[in-house]
Design a protein that fits this description.
By secondary structure, the protein is an alpha+beta fold. The protein is built from four helices and six strands; from the N terminus they run H-H-H-E-E-E-E-H-E-E. The strands form two sheets. A four-stranded antiparallel sheet has the order 3-4-6-5, covered by helices on one side. A hairpin with a 6-residue loop joins strand 3 and strand 4. The longest helix has 22 residues. It is globular. The N terminus and C terminus are likely disordered.
């Protein structure tokens, strides 16, 4: 995809389970755009016959849904949550984790205790679903334990046939 701000290593989209993205916000924005451009190129080069190349996730995305969904959310301008070295939440935002089925991911809206994240989650998850939909992901809203909402995300079906269910 692209290199990190130090010119070394691969770009990693923020999943909400690490430290906040470091460095210059403008540089990070350029890296996200570059990664998204790379993803779109992968889609164009690997789209199955008869499919809209930009409308559905590529095989790479289906194999790594957490990374792909995190990139889609970050590229959509949404803020990731973050944790410190002890694992304590330090920022309110999305968190992307693995789904129970292959090619799926789960998106939650989390924040530090007292941040009001629970009160923001309906609107925030709707924004996440919209950003994901623009990049060919289907996001279904569910209520989990203690009434907290989450999105279950999977690739939209391709025009050439259904995606994994």
């Amino acid at each position: 995809m692209s290199t990190g701000p130090d010119g070394k290593g691969a770009f990693e989209a923020a999943t909400g389970d690490g430290p906040p993205p470091a460095g210059d916000p403008e540089q990070r924005s350029r890296e996200v755009r570059s990664a998204l451009d790379g993803l779109r190129q992968i889609r164009r080069l690997t789209a199955p016959p008869g499919a809209d190349a930009g409308a559905v996730p590529a095989d790479w995305e289906r194999r790594q849904p957490v990374r792909a969904v995190a990139l889609a959310l970050e590229a959509g301008g949404l803020a990731p949550s973050a944790v410190d070295a002890t694992g304590a939440r330090t920022a309110t935002g999305y968190r992307v984790g693995a789904g129970e089925r292959p090619a799926t991911a789960v998106v939650t809206w989390l924040g530090p205790p007292g941040s009001g994240a629970a009160g923001q989650e309906a609107e925030a998850l709707a924004a996440c679903a919209a950003a994901l939909g623009r990049l060919g992901w289907e996001a279904l809203l569910y209520k989990g334990p203690r009434g907290r909402r989450f999105l279950e995300v999977e690739p939209a079906p391709t025009a050439a046939g259904p995606g994994p269910s």
